[in-house]
Amino acid sequence: MPGEKAVTAKRVYDEPSHSDGERVLVDRLWPRGLKKAKAQVDVWLREIAPSNELRKWFHAHADEREQFRKRYIEELHGGEASEALARLRELVHEKGKVTLLFASKNVDYNNATVLQEILSASKRDLRASRPRKSAAVGPQR
């Protein structure tokens, strides 16, 4: 559907595609061994990445996804991370199609997939909060 906002996530090492839309790197560190020209990153939001502490914790506790998600969302509510999340929301609104790029080998669950979930939930919340068109209403008594 034209104008539809879409957020996807994929490894930054995967081939760029025209269907990616705006390519946003959401890692704090530049991906090892990847040249900037090959990565084709449009925007690098370092500040939106989990803190080094949380990143290291999750690496050691990869099975504790819900705890990672909770702690990461808490980080996103403060300081530079909050500003970066607001910028990401603006990009989705402006560009329509955004691909969140990450370097993690875990393609099923990482900070980009949490961000994708947050942005998708925001879209659903916005749609749910819109007033629905009602049937013709007669005069009030």
What's the quick description here?
43% of the residues lie in helices and 13% in strands. The chain has a 4-stranded parallel beta sheet with strand order 1-4-2-3. The longest helix has 19 residues.
Largest sheet: 4 strands, parallel
Strand content: 5-15%
The ordered H/E elements are EEHEHHHEH
Instruction: Outline the low-pLDDT stretches.
Output: 125-141
Fraction of helical residues: 40-55%
Overall average pLDDT: 86
Going across the biggest sheet, name each strand in turn: 1-4-2-3
User: Care to count the β-strands?
Assistant: 4
Oligomeric status: single chain
Written description of the protein model:
This protein is of the alpha/beta class and 141 residues long. Helices cover 43% and strands 13% of the residues. The protein has five helices and four strands, in the order ββαβαααβα. It has helices at 36-39, 52-60, 65-76, 79-95, 111-129, and strands at residues 6-11, 22-25, 43-44, 97-102. The chain has a four-stranded parallel beta sheet with strand order 1-4-2-3. The longest helix has 19 residues, at 111-129. The N and C termini lie far apart (42 Å). Residues 125-141 have low confidence and may be disordered.
Secondary structure layout:
Elements (H helix, E strand, L loop, with lengths): L5 E6 L10 E4 L10 H4 L3 E2 L7 H9 L4 H12 L2 H17 L1 E6 L8 H19 L12
Parallel strand pairs: 1-4, 2-3, 2-4
